[in-house]
Amino acid sequence: MPVNHAMLGFTLLELLIGLLFTALIVLGIAHYFLVSTQVHLIIQQEALAARTLENLLLQAHFNGQSEAAIQDSLPSNNCPNEAFVNGLDFTHWCQALKELPQLNYSLTSVPAYLEWQSPTGIKRIQR
């Protein structure tokens, strides 16, 4: 039986094209994971900021204090030693200070807002 050498194995060009396609697929998957990780972080930061702002505004409403009084009670860049200060719960605030870089806020402006530096730029939540 004669052996046809053209039908045995791969040529070097076929191998290189296969490796190129494999490398492109791996790069695509790596890019997808990078983007999905950034999106996940942004979603977590937005949820934390919204929850923190809602919590502070609800405390102002239910404690009978004004937003200005709440804002004056907030420690600027540190977490208080106790969770409750002047009847206010700072649990969400302390978590936001840890997780949201360059946190900025105003409860007395209309609308009230929290602002921070996210991976894609400055983000702002308003209520």
- What is the succession of H and E elements? HHEEHEEE
Low-confidence stretches: none
Q: Proportion of β residues? A: 5-15%
Could you say how many structural domains there are in total? Answer: 1
Give a brief rundown of this model.
This protein is α+β, with helices and mostly antiparallel strands and 127 residues long.
Protein described:
- With 127 residues, the protein is of the alpha+beta class.
- The chain has one domain.
- The chain has three helices and five strands; from the N terminus they run ααββαβββ.
- It has helices at residues 12-62, 67-73, 91-99, and strands spanning 84-85, 88-89, 104-106, 113-118, 121-126.
- It has a three-stranded antiparallel beta sheet with strand order 3-4-5, with helices on one face. The protein has a two-stranded antiparallel sheet with strand order 1-2.
- Strand 1 and strand 2 form a beta hairpin.
- Helix 1 (12-62) packs antiparallel against helix 3 (91-99).
- The termini are far apart.
Question: Would you spell out the secondary-structure blueprint of this structure?
Answer:
Blueprint (H helix, E strand, L loop, with lengths): L11 H51 L4 H7 L10 E2 L2 E2 L1 H9 L4 E3 L6 E6 L2 E6 L1
Antiparallel strand pairs: 1-2, 3-4, 4-5
Q: What tags apply to this protein structure?
A:
3 helices; 127 residues; two-stranded antiparallel sheet; 5 strands; alpha+beta
